[in-house]
Amino acid sequence: MTVRRILLLLPLLAAVSCPTGAAAETASTDSALAVYKGGAVYPAEFTRAWWIVSPDRRPPGNPVEQRKAFLAQIVDRKLLAREASRHTYTLTEAEQASLDRTRDLLVQNALFDQLVRDLPAVTDEQVERHRRRLTTLAEVGFVTFNDMERARLWRQRLASGTPLTTLEAAVAREGAALAEVDSFRFVGADQIPDSLANLIWSMRIGQVSEIQTFGGRPMIILLRRYKPRVSTVPQDDNAAIRLDYVKRQYDTMRQRFRVQIAAEAHRTFDEEGIKILLAAHLRVPPRNDVDSVTGLPVMRPNLALPVIAPADTGKTVALVGNRRITIGGYLAYWSRVPALTRPEIRERASLEGAIDRLALAPEIIRVSQERGYDKDPRILSELADQREGYMLDHYYETEIVPRVKVTESALRNYWAKDKAHYNDRASIKPRIILVDRKSLADSLLVRLRAGSSFADLAREYSNEGESAAHGGEAGTMYRGSQPNAGLEDAMFATRVGQLGGPEQTPQGWVIWRIEDATPGVVRNFEEARSMVERDFRITEADRLVSEMLAKLRKEAKVRIFEERVTADLGRGGPWDD
C-alpha cells in the first residue's frame, strides 16, 4: 500500500450523501467494524467512504477481501490524520478555493435533491423507451419544405404509401423551391436536440412523422430502421437504464428550477457571444458518433473544451444584473470539471443550461444557504474530510519527504535492481491484414506491391475485426510485448514503408506494412539519474510511512473485526449494479 493510497483514500470532490440514519448510529463497539485507542469505524462511515471511491480505486480481491483492505485503509488514514493534527498547517489559496467550490457544489446538490424528492416512480414503459434511446441508432431521413400546404400534401402521400423516390423525382424537377431531401443517415439520441430525439424514438419503423417546424420551416421525418449501438449502459441492465432515466429526470427538474432563478435574477443572454460559443461547441467531436468510413459506432467519453479565438474570449455570453459572464470565464469554469462529466452541447438550450451553471451559481447558493443546507451535518463532514486530506498532504510534504536520505550509492543500488525500467523500448506502428489462407495472403501481397490501397484491402479481407475497421491500423507495438516472438522479430526487421509477410500465426496468416518506427533507448545510470531519484524518493517515503503506521497501530491497539465485514457491506451506492 503506497502513501498516496492512504493519504488520498477518499476522493473529496464527489457529492455523495451519507446513508439514511447514519447520524443515529450509536457509538457502541458491538457494531463497530474496527476500534482503536480514541476512536472507532462504524458501518455508516465505511459506507460513506465506500460510496465515494470508484471501483478502479478500490483494493483488489474478491468483495470481502476488498472491503477488509479498505477498512484497514480507513483506520490508517485516521491514525495518520491524528498524528498530522499535532502540527499546524495553513491552506494554500488553491486549496481554499477548491474547498469553497466543493462547499458550493454540495449545498446546490442538497437543494436539488430536495426539489426532486417527490418525483413519481418510473414506469416500465418509460424504461423501455429510454433503453431504445440509449442502445440504438435511428436511420432517418429529413425532408424540409418551403411551403406548409405542399408539406401537408406530401406528408399525406408518403404516409399513405407513396415511395420516397416519387418525392425525390419531384424535387429533381422543381429543385429547392419544393423541398430539400436529406439522405438517410444514422443518428444517436444524444447527437440531436432532446425534443427531436423524443419524437424519433417514439416512432415506429417505416413511419412518417407529423409536420414539424424545427428551424422555422415545415419538415417531416421518415424512420427507416433502428440498429444496435455501443452504449455506456448495457442493453440488458434494467437497473442501470432506470438509473440513467432518473438522472435525466433530475436534470430536467434542475433546469426548470434554473429557469425560475434566471427570471428572478434577470439573467439575459448576449446573442453574439452565444452564436460564437455554440458554433465552437458544434465543432467538438461528439461523445457518440458513427465512423463515416466504416459505419461503426465511435465513443469518446472525454469531451474536449471548445476552441475559441483569443480575441473572442472577452465577449459576453450572459448578464446577471451587473455581473458579466464572458466566454473566457465560461471556459475557465468548465476546464475545472473532469472531461468525462462535461455536458455535450449540440443545441442552444443545452448551451444556455451550461452557461447558467456558472451564471446562476451565486443565486442558487444564496437560496441553498437561506434554507440552511450549508449547515447540514453531512455537508460539514464532507468539507472536514477534504480539509483533512489537505492536512495529510502538507504533513507528507513537510514531515515525511524531508526524512528521505538520498545518497549516490543508494540511487545506484536502486537503479541496478531494474535497469530496464529506465529504458525506452523500440516501437513500430504497423498496418496488418489477417487471413485464413497463405494463398490469399500471397495474392494480397501481389496486389499491394502493384499499388492497391492497404487500408481498402484490410477492410475487405482482414479477419482481425478491430484493426480491419480502421484500415488495418494496429496501433503502437513495443518490442517484447508480443506472444509470437517470430512474428514480432519479422515485423521489427521490416523498414518503414515496406511490406512484410506472410507470417503464420495461430490465428492465420499475417501480412503487414510498417507506417512508423521508433528506435529504443538504453540509458546508463547518469542518463536515468533524475528518474531514478524521483522513484527512489517515492519508494522511501512510502517505506517511512509504513514504518510509522506499524508504530501507530501498535500504540493505538487497533482491532479490526473481520467477521463483521461481509460482501454486502457498503452496498447501495452509485457504483453498484
Give the key terms.
20 helices; disordered N terminus; 16 strands; 14% strand; 577 residues
Strand content: 5-15%
How far is it from the N-terminal to the C-terminal residue, by CA? 27 Å
Overall average residue pLDDT: 87
- CATH T-level topology of the domain at 124-228: Chitinase A, domain 3
CATH class of the domain at 124-228: Alpha Beta
Low-confidence stretches: 3-27
Q: Assign the structural class, choosing from mainly alpha, mainly beta, alpha/beta, alpha+beta, or little secondary structure.
A: alpha+beta
Q: Looking at the structure, what is the overall shape?
A: globular
Largest sheet: 4 strands, antiparallel
Helix content: 40-55%
Number of helices in the DSSP assignment = 20
Structure description:
- This protein is α+β, with helices and mostly antiparallel strands and 577 residues long.
- Among the domains are: 105 residues, Roll (Chitinase A, domain 3), CATH 3.10.50; 102 residues, no CATH class; 95 residues, Chitinase A, domain 3, CATH 3.10.50.40.
- The chain has 20 helices and 16 strands.
- A hairpin with a 2-residue loop joins strand 1 and strand 2.
- Helix 4 runs antiparallel to helix 14, helix 5 packs across helix 9 and helix 15 crosses helix 20.
- The longest helix has 32 residues.
- The chain is globular, with a radius of gyration of 30 Å.
- The two termini are 27 Å apart.
